[in-house]
Amino acid sequence: MKSKEETGEHEEDETATQHSSEIYPWLVNATQLPQQISPAQIKQISPSALAYLGDAIYELYVRMVYLWPQQRLENYHRSVVDQVRAETQALHLRMLTPYLRSNELEIVRRGRNSATSRHKRLNPEIYQQATSLETLVGYLYLTDYPRLTELLQKLPLEK
């Protein structure tokens, strides 16, 4: 019978542990992007555009969290969809609200007010809260990446 060293199993276990502990440096910091966005330009970005960006960043973050331990693609998809749906995003915003600074609460308010689209299956308040979270994520991605990481790490993503 071969040992773990001979089969390479030990290396796989170490790699999985290493990757799972390194989830949070998950995305290029916006200050490292090829095209810099000035603070004046950021102020001109609409809350809807920030929510558009925030939606992508939030989903990528959730996908990275669920990447380890390895699963079947259907399981990845199901887990991520559960976390990125509006109801869960609204819950996450409510959980983060006590930790938000005044400027972040203002961004949340702007995001809530920009959520004018009405979905048939959603309570308008849920949709507004989800959009608010996405707006905050987009804004922080562009302005304060370490703060974004700090807040996202507070989310109780179920595995």
Structural class: mainly alpha
Task: Tell me the number of strands.
Answer: 0
Query: Strand share of the residues?
Result: under 5%
Into which percent range does the helicity of residues fall?
A: 55-70%
Order of helices and strands: HHHHHHHHH
Task: Name the shape in a single word.
Answer: globular
Q: What distance lies between the first and last C-alpha atoms, to the nearest angstrom?
A: 34 Å
Major sheet: none
Mean pLDDT: 79
Contiguous runs where pLDDT drops below 50 for at least 5 residues = 1-24
- How large, in whole angstroms, is the Cα Rg? 18 Å
Number of alpha- plus pi-helical segments: 9
Describe this structure in words.
It is a single chain. The protein is mostly helical and 159 residues long. 67% of the residues lie in helices and 0% in strands. The radius of gyration is 18 Å and the shape is globular.
Which labels suit this protein?
single chain; 159 residues; mainly alpha; disordered N terminus
Topology of this structure?
Layout: H1 4-7, H2 9-21, H3 39-44, H4 47-65, H5 73-84, H6 86-96, H7 102-114, H8 124-143, H9 145-152
Brief characterization of the structure:
The protein is mainly α.
